């Protein structure tokens, strides 16, 4: 008798556990202040300072997408929706870090982009057989769910990041105008 799992299943499990675990931990920092995080209040103030408004609501949304999406990715549950939610949160983080360039040591978007791409890849590839989706007969992991989840997340992320970028531009223009008037 041969085993019913192959290298692909083990690889997807490791990728899900690693990516999902990191995302869930980052979300827990935002939501609960765990692992040296600042909780909703502190993260909300930070989110407001980088252009997301309202800050506390933005912190809650990012924390839920990271904690919920990460946990669900790790479990292999509703993988298209979990991966899309996590990818959307990482797209928002990438937008904040993009002005600093690519590399993380310079404050760039490298880390957020890597997590977002891994989450997107898992949403597309599926969780493998070592997952709750497989155990449940893939009721939350249908092929049609992948473009729906990724498309809806892309649209919402574009709106949120677009509004954030507009606020950042207006703030910069206001600061430049104030300097000009001095």
TrEMBL record:
<dbReference type="Pfam" id="PF07681">
    <property type="entry name" value="DoxX"/>
</dbReference>
<keyword id="KW-1133">Transmembrane helix</keyword>
<dbReference type="GO" id="GO:0005886">
    <property type="term" value="C:plasma membrane"/>
</dbReference>
<feature type="transmembrane region" description="Helical">
    <location>
        <begin position="108"/>
        <end position="125"/>
    </location>
</feature>
<keyword id="KW-0812">Transmembrane</keyword>
<feature type="transmembrane region" description="Helical">
    <location>
        <begin position="73"/>
        <end position="96"/>
    </location>
</feature>
<keyword id="KW-1003">Cell membrane</keyword>
<keyword id="KW-0472">Membrane</keyword>
<protein>
    <submittedName>
        <fullName>DoxX family protein</fullName>
    </submittedName>
</protein>
<dbReference type="InterPro" id="IPR051907">
    <property type="entry name" value="DoxX-like_oxidoreductase"/>
</dbReference>
<dbReference type="InterPro" id="IPR032808">
    <property type="entry name" value="DoxX"/>
</dbReference>
<feature type="transmembrane region" description="Helical">
    <location>
        <begin position="145"/>
        <end position="163"/>
    </location>
</feature>
<comment type="similarity">
    <text>Belongs to the DoxX family.</text>
</comment>
């Amino acid at each position: 008798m041969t085993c019913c799992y192959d290298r692909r299943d083990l690889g997807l499990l490791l990728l899900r556990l690693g990516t999902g675990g990191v995302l869930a931990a980052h979300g827990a920092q935002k939501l609960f202040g765990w692992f040296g995080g600042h909780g909703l209040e502190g993260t909300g103030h930070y989110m407001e300072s980088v252009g997301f408004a309202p800050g506390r609501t933005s912190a809650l949304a990012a924390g839920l997408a990271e904690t919920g999406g990460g946990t669900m990715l790790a479990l292999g549950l509703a993988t298209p929706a979990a991966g899309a939610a996590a990818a959307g949160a990482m797209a928002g983080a990438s937008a904040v870090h993009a002005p600093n360039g690519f590399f993380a040591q310079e404050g760039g978007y490298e880390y957020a982009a890597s997590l977002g791409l891994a989450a997107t890849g898992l949403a597309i590839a599926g969780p493998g057989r070592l997952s709750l989706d497989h155990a449940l007969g893939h009721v939350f992991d249908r092929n049609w769910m992948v473009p729906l989840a990724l498309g809806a997340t892309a649209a919402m992320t574009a709106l949120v990041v677009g509004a954030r970028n507009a606020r950042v531009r207006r703030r910069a223009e206001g600061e430049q105008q104030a300097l000009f008037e001095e």
